[in-house]
Design goal:
By secondary structure, the chain is an alpha/beta fold. The protein has 19 helices and seven strands.
Length: 547
């Protein structure tokens, strides 16, 4: 019975290949990706089943021979003519249930037997052309009674050279043509394969009906599987792919070790560049602070227009109803106008800052890769902008502090509340005389009614005049509070802008923390990494002579 050999070597190579794959994750160099993919493909090929395909014409004894080779008599009775081929397998690892028969026996684990129908059939030939490349062994069953002719030869002629690792020829029913004719036919088949198919094949005489020569043939098939072009080929390919990956890793580790040993001060240089950048930013703090400090008086006309619209031009009940909230509204409007103007200018400044940082990052990235073998990602603009948004929100909060300390809202509340008395009196008089005029008119005293309406008109006119005077006085009060705020903002703005600039450059500096941390990690782990790499490489070299 056939068996899958080199299980121990496969396990060793797989284990050390996985160790090399873990090393790739630790080193983290994208240039090794093609080498890693080669290792993954080799591992997949090594871990796949060893495929043995039996092919030939009708009645040549394919299924019976496969039954003897596998040691499983059930194969002989499991053939279905409606299927172009059957795969006898230990388990389903690719989802094929149409052409597969599963025998969960230890004897089949790791080996797949493919029993084909008549190779003269076009459908069978199409399937064989798909299955044969990459298979471990193809057994051509040729009937000696037909002079060794088989439609399998036509299939092999359509394949490129070396598409199949090993080809064996099972010459069946040789007992019916004699020993001398059998030897002569075997020689002709070998010559034909060498000249026409460019294949060196092993021809074995087998009689599946009487098990004549079957044991010897099974031994030859086992030797074929165990040959350098059989099972050992997949192990060797995995070993070679892992070796290439390890060699590349060795070069990267050595380069990083040299970079750390010959400390170039690259990161210190980057820090110096950022310090210089900060100095340039601080040079513009005075102008920026002066520009921002001019905002409170600059938005004052807008605030006064909003005040006039809210207070109205004439005496009205609506104005009286809103008086208690107008102080807070005026202060809130003033704060929003100041913040809006400053934030617009700050946002423009931040956009210029981001553009400068992006240009600097692009210049640093290739230099860092060359100097210390450290790859940094693309410029994290979204991270920096998120931090700048936070700093702007913090600036908005700090801009409200002068309003609180100066108690602008309290002052405005008092100014507006002082108008409640006379406005209330004026509205009461208007209501009284309007009611009186209505009653007098109802009693037919039209003259007195008109006099009452005249009083209403006089009170309203006087109230409107007073309303205008109050509006002008309130505007002066608001302007006085604005000028008080202006002086405080001018004193505090340089400090606020300076803190903002320093924090902003600090946010950009922190983007290099990942690179700095990675370099520090390199320094800490390069030695154990080198030792681990050497251990894996040593084990791979120890395993290689066994394959």
């Amino acid at each position: 019975m056939l068996r899958r050999s080199y299980r121990v070597q496969e396990s060793l190579v797989r284990y050390w290949a996985q160790q090399a794959r873990e090393m790739y994750g630790i080193i983290g160099d994208d240039e090794m990706q093609p080498l890693l993919e080669s290792v993954e493909q080799s591992l997949a090929a090594m871990e796949g089943d060893r495929r043995i395909i039996v092919m030939g014409g009708t009645g040549c004894g394919k299924t019976s021979l496969l039954s003897y080779v596998s040691g499983l008599p059930v194969i002989r009775s499991g053939r279905q003519q409606e299927s172009p081929y059957l795969r006898w397998r230990y388990g389903n690892n690719d989802g094929d249930t149409v052409h597969s028969r599963f025998l969960p026996l230890p004897e089949l684990q790791g080996i797949e037997f493919v029993d084909t129908d008549d190779c003269a059939d076009a459908e069978v030939q199409e399937e064989l052309l798909r299955l044969l490349p990459g298979s471990d062994a193809a057994i051509v069953v040729a009937d000696a009674r037909n002079n060794g002719e088989s439609p399998a030869w036509d299939v092999l002629r359509q394949l490129p050279v070396n598409a199949v690792a090993n080809v064996l020829v099972a010459l069946t029913f040789t007992d019916q043509i004699g020993a001398e004719a059998s030897l002569e036919l075997s020689a002709r088949i070998r010559e034909m394969c060498r000249e026409q198919l460019r294949l060196v094949v092993l021809v074995c005489s087998v009689n599946p009906t009487s098990e004549q020569g079957v044991e010897t043939f099974v031994t030859r098939v086992q030797e074929t599987l165990d040959s350098p072009e059989g099972a050992r080929r997949a192990i060797r390919n995995t070993l070679e792919a892992t070796g290439r990956l390890m060699t590349r890793q060795s070069g990267i580790i050595n380069a990083r070790t040299a970079a750390m040993r010959d400390e170039t001060g690259f990161l210190s240089g980057i820090e110096s560049e950022i310090d210089t950048f900060l100095s340039h930013q601080l040079d513009g703090v005075a102008d920026c602070a002066q520009d921002y400090a001019s905002v409170p008086l600059g938005v004052l006309p807008q605030l006064l227009r909003k005040l006039r619209r809210s207070f109205g031009r004439f005496l009205s009940p609506l104005c009286l109803m809103q008086l208690e909230d107008m102080g807070a509204g005026a202060e809130s409007s003033y704060y929003r106008l100041v913040c809006k103007a400053i934030m617009e200018r700050q946002r423009e400044s931040d956009n210029r800052f981001v553009a400068s940082c992006q240009a600097h990052w692009r210049s640093v990235r290739p230099r860092m890769k060359e100097a210390i073998e450290c790859e940094i990602n693309d410029f994290p603009q979204d991270v920096l902008e998120a931090e700048l948004n936070r700093l702007r929100r913090q600036l908005e909060h700090e801009l409200y502090q002068p309003f609180t300390r100066l108690r602008i809202r309290s002052a405005l509340d008092n100014a507006f509340s002082d108008q409640v008395g006379w406005m209330h009196t004026a509205h009461v008089l208007l209501c009284i005389f309007l009611v009186l005029a209505g009653l007098l008119g109802a009693l037919g005293l039209d003259t007195l009614a008109y006099c009452a309406m005249g009083v209403v008109l006089v009170v309203w006119v006087l109230g409107a005049v007073q309303h205008g005077a109050v509006l002008r006085r309130l505007a002066r009060d608001v302007e006085r509070e604005a000028r008080t705020l202006d002086s405080v903002v001018r004193d505090e703005m340089p400090g606020l802008v300076r803190d903002l600039v320093v924090s902003r450059v600090g946010a950009y500096r922190s983007l290099y923390a990942v690179a700095s941390q990675r370099v520090n990690e390199y320094v800490e782990r390069l030695q154990p990494l080198q030792e681990r790499h050497n251990a894996i490489l040593r084990e791979l070299r120890t395993t290689a002579p066994r394959i």
